[in-house]
Amino acid sequence: MDDDNEPASAAPYAVAIKRASLHHHVVDKLREMISRGDLPAGERLNEVALAQAIGVSRTPMREAVKLLASEGLLELLPGRGARVRQFSAKELLDVFDVLGALERHAIEVAVSRMTPKALSEIERLHNQMLDAYKKRSQKAYFKSNQKLHALIVELSGNPALSNAHITLTKQSVHNRHETLLSDQRWQESVAEHQAIFDAIVEGDAIRAGVLMLDHSRRTGAAVVDAARSANELRMGVEQARKTRPA
């Protein structure tokens, strides 16, 4: 059928699909900027400038801000726009505590029902992480790390667990970009993942669960330390600017 003969009723659907695609694009860009630290915790959003930078109008930008606020990444300020949420140390530790519990249960279930195909995919992502570490690429390491954790949760076959994990991961991810700047923590993370992978290969669900919980808690503690250091650095820079002679 020629495009000219396409039913007129199809036009609204095409517009809706295009609008949804644009919405997801803006949300993904903002989430990426928060994750990378381009929009640090506590920073107020300049929606006009961000809309221009991304190349969209104010409407999809406002919709994206509302969605990220509902996810806990942003805070809406009555009459003053929004800012990137600043998590307290306790809030971050609480998030990773729950993440650890979820991932412990997920890996115990996943190991107990592991298939050769699933194990092969886990091994592939694990090797990607090791390769990124050898190449000193934190970005690639973090990307493979996220995929591996998500896969393990998915292999639990529990949609409710997966949804809760996705929500909490979104709340923690914008603080993690600073964590891997520590070579010591990076090395520790690699060792922890190797131990977890070995337990998976050996089919030891209980040991894999214990190791995963410990890994999550250690990561949480490292994120808190890194967030504190980054915040102290920003405060120092801001104080220096204030005291600098005109």
Automatic annotation (TrEMBL):
It comes from the Bacteria. Keywords: DNA-binding, Transcription, Transcription regulation. This is Transcriptional regulator. Residues 20-87 form the HTH gntR-type domain. Transmembrane segments: none annotated. Pfam families: FCD, GntR. One of its GO terms (molecular function) is DNA binding. Coiled coil: none annotated. SUPFAM superfamilies: GntR ligand-binding domain-like, Winged helix' DNA-binding domain.
